[in-house]
Design the sequence.
């Protein structure tokens, strides 16, 4: 009986590990009342300059998030000083209010496309910065403390074609 348990555990572990074989980098940072001036940063180690990667922003939210969309400002800082900034909008709920994303219970996880087929040609460390850019309709000033976002993550995956 014990050997069957060990065999099942080993097969389950192998399946779990192999299911995420595209993952190169995956990290989350917890946020609590995400302040509009708080930047969530991810330091990316040196990556193979000959390969292409897909980039994702992962967001975990709960029912305290009161909006159907999420606006983010992102930056990729290159090793030699170049910076690429983007303002992004992501749909977080359907028109009927049902949350998008996966997960049971109160917390939903969203894997959001950021960039695809990216090559990191400069040798050295890269940094990705993410901050929210949420504001209420008709208001100029942003929301000071954004409730309902529990974690912000960044993920890099190998592409299926690396030419």
Sequence:
């Amino acid at each position: 009986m014990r050997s069957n348990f060990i065999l099942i555990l080993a097969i389950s572990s192998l399946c779990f590990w192999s299911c995420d074989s595209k993952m190169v980098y995956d990290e989350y940072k917890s946020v609590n009342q995400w302040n509009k001036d708080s930047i969530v940063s991810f330091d990316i180690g040196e990556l193979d300059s000959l390969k292409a990667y897909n980039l994702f922003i992962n967001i975990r939210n709960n029912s305290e998030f009161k909006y159907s969309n999420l606006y983010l400002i992102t930056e990729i800082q290159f090793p030699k000083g170049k910076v690429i900034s983007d303002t992004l909008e992501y749909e977080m709920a359907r028109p009927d209010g049902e949350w998008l994303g996966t997960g049971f219970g109160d917390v939903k996880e969203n894997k959001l496309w950021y960039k695809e087929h990216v090559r990191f040609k400069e040798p050295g460390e890269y940094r990705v910065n993410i901050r929210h850019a949420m504001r209420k309709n008709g208001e100029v000033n942003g929301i000071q403390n954004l409730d309902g976002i529990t974690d912000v993550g960044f993920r890099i995956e190998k592409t299926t074609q690396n030419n």
Observations:
- The beta strands are 23-30, 34-35, 40-44, 53-61, 69-77, 83-91, 108-118, 126-132, 145-146, 149-158.
